[in-house]
Amino acid sequence: MSEATADRFAQLALELHSSQGAEETIEELVHFALQALNCSHAGVALAASGKPEIPAVTEPVVAEISESQLNGGVGPLAHTMRERVTTLVSDTATDQRWPDWATRVQALGLRSVLHVPLSIAPESVGVLGLYSPEPNAFSEDDEAVAHLLARHAAVTLAAARHEDALSRVVDARELVGMAMGILMERYDIDEAHAFDLLSHYSQETNTKLHDVAQWLVEGRRLPFGA
Questions:
Q1: Looking at the whole model, is its pTM more than 0.70?
Q2: CA 204 – CA 201 distance, rounded (Å)
Q3: 8 A C-beta contact, residue 164 and residue 144
Q4: 154 class by beta-carbon count within 10 Å (0-12 exposed, 13-18 middle, 19+ buried)
């Protein structure tokens, strides 16, 4: 790795550390890839509990290519996500593994493609996709740097997702607390009775407690008309 690339990695570490959440982390990742690697386009695809998403791309064409593979399950991105292995297509004009995909991508002016897995958690996996209009664009050094970037980003992304999840839990608790406060003030009851009232309606109507609380806080009335 060159000194310039090492310096860019150090800068990326600072930027990822200061990111505010998972989405910003991924945006930083794809734009850094354009600086550190021999590619013109980059993108990230994620899958959690079988639900794929494409949270960040440098060009709309990357989202188009990625969506077709995630929906159809055919192509190097789908292969990388399913098998969690690196997939290199040196030239879309000659690669025969996914001919329909290769023909389409070549028509879009892209000749080299490199997909590297982001192992975020046992139930969640991501893929960093790199694209170039030049055939044989990715050297062994490029692939090594891509792996370093993927590992670094996966750790940061996992931490960011954990923080996001904790934040949502805190928000839900605050919302339930606000709803309980409304009930306590309106009916002159204590916290235990207010929580029991919310829980009872949640169970009786098969509605999430968070949704019941949000309904009460936003509407300033009990959804069950009591």
A1: no
A2: 5
A3: no
A4: buried
